[in-house]
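One record is kept unedited as follows:
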Amino acid sequence: MKKAIYTIMLGNNPMFQFTRRAMQIYAEKVGVDLIVRTSRLTPVLMNENNLSIITACVEKLFIEDLLQIYDRVLYLDADVLITPFAPNIFEIYSDTNQIYLYNEGQYIDRSSCIYSVYQLFDYKQKWTKQNEKFIYYNAGIMLCSKQANFFQYKSVEEFESSYQKLPFHDQTYFNYLIQKSGIQHQSIDTKFNRMDSLGNPQERFQAFFIHYAGYGYSNHPQNKHQTVAQDFQQLYSNKSSDQQAFNFILSQQVISEMLKNRQPENAVQYLQQQIQLTPQNANLYNDLGVVLMLNPQYHSQGLQLFQQALNLSPQNTAFQTNLKLAQTILSLHKR
């Protein structure tokens, strides 16, 4: 199965050298091609005053052409920084009949965007909801597949005539296409699209994909390239075992507190005792695996514990993520 990462980097933004390097490292790690669009492929459809924004959004439509060559394409905005220990997103979200994006509608009210679709397109269908909130995806990170190519439902003429009338432009149009087409869709975890709209900016360092949308963890959008540069240096210069472990997903808060207080030995002892008492508790095996991943000497045992947790609870997505991340770390250490 052929896979690729596609991003659009038009202009000379100093941020690109860092996000592009991180994407290249990740592409090599998971064994996929990296395609970076640095010049305009499509003609400008609209107002020349918004050339860079318009062109980048139009270039997203090129994903449809890439899906004639590749089975799966991961689109990333140019302001996405992949962290060193990000697991293989293609393996975690493996259903090729679905499109995967992050449902920001669970955290931000995007009803005004949805209402604009109803008004502009005279849309009659019911908009799907999750947890009583409208589903509205962020289009900065999209995992697309040939079998679920929702771009085939697009209309360039429709896109051209509606673009400037829609809030968030191509993003709202893509959400409209997902709803109209009836294509299967699923949200990715926030770790794969961590934006500052979620609050707690320091938690971005525990994410897999950091998305510097808008202000991008800065006091002004013009300064976010500096934040990206600083984050890149911090993430790629200090790949300590502690940082690796905190990218994993823990099941119990008590273990998280022990690790934060630099008490891994106490955590191991506690978990081993609990496993003896309740050997069918999958969470215990998962958390013991996380603790052992602090020490490279015990990475293999940590991976085995994640597998035990998954054997006890096969549908647990946190265990699945941890297992993939452990496999990635082990493969890196073997190089």
